[in-house]
Amino acid sequence: MNAEWRKWQITDVGFYYDLNGNGNPYEDQEKLKWDGNDPSNPQPGEFAILRQQPEGNVLFILAHISSPDPPPSNAKVVVMLKTSVTDQKGIKVTLHYSGACPQGNGYHFHKLYGQEIKMVKPPEQSIDDIQIQVHVSGDNTAEVTTYDHAISPTSNYLDSAAIEVGLTNRQKRGRARDSNWEMKTPTLPTLLRFIQAAGVEKIKVYDPHNPSVNHELPVKNQADILYYSGHGSIETGELISVFDSGGTIHPSEINAAINWGEDLEYFIISACGVLDPDSKGISYWAKPIVKNGPLKGLTGYYGSAPQDIPPPGKPSSVEVADRFVTNLNSNPSYDFDTGDSVLNAWLESNAYYQLPAVAYTNWWVVEAFEGWWVVKEKQQNY
Predict the structure, then answer these.
(1) Domain map of the chain by residue range?
(2) Of the N and C termini of the chain, which has fewer Cβ atoms inside 10 Å?
(3) How many whole angstroms separate alpha carbon 226 and alpha carbon 238?
(4) What's the topology of domain 143-381?
(5) Which secondary-structure segment (H or E) carries 376?
(6) What is the pLDDT of residues 3-12, one digit of tens each?
């Protein structure tokens, strides 16, 4: 085998998917990508988040092999597969010779059809050639992820950075930004699919003899807290700071019942007015996502949210974020009648700056501020 290995060199390995729907996921043009040229118009296979888009728990791994001679029909090569959080040790994956590359630049190796690697949730164990652990349900670990679309001259990422840095006791589950995408964090584009995933880790396949031959993708690993920073429409109840989905996201597009049932507990929306309890904040957001949905709490604003770079004398989004994480780290017990430390911390941080914050629990709507220079609470059932 060692002699054969010297002949068979892995020149490329990666994650693939049946993008064209012809039943064959192992085609050269169907390699998945975590980035792309135009996030407002994602092409098939671009900006992939495994388990979210494309969905499913099956991994299609294809290796390209260079060899001076055609490999025998029973030829095999071994690659390694690991994740950045759930299984950092990883598993061995044996790929079988399947034929010459149609592009004429080597030979294809992949798992036998129907025997592909599955992603499973702990306590199911990772097993060589069979399955690898990825958290797909609550894991009793405190986590946070942030989404920040800051494309205007008066916008920045400071509030999201304050959330990440301040919540040092929570593991980070990636982030979404409108620039500087990279896989180290990972940092992904501000797309609807990231909001639906609500957190990612990395999964990597590589040649154990030459680790520089590898492929990494984000894979859904949902956080407990998703912090959104962008713009919202009071008139429509939509989030409007996104690359794709026509530039807006209606709450129904998130499909919280399907996408947020794994680990997410709180969605914090730092955007103007979409959670107004007198309009679409209840019918579009609170009822399907909290009262009749999977989350413990939903919070944001029933009026104007603080700006990243506000006018003189006005509080900034980063000031609110800083106070929020300070409150949360000190286990607040502010009497906002939510019975929840995360929601209480958010309401207090906004009441302090006299901002129109609102929080939804399973049963209550709680407003932290009403009227200028007056701080009070208002609670109602919905």
Answers:
(1) 2-133, 143-381
(2) N
(3) 17
(4) Rossmann fold (3.40.50)
(5) strand 375-381
(6) 444 567 999 9
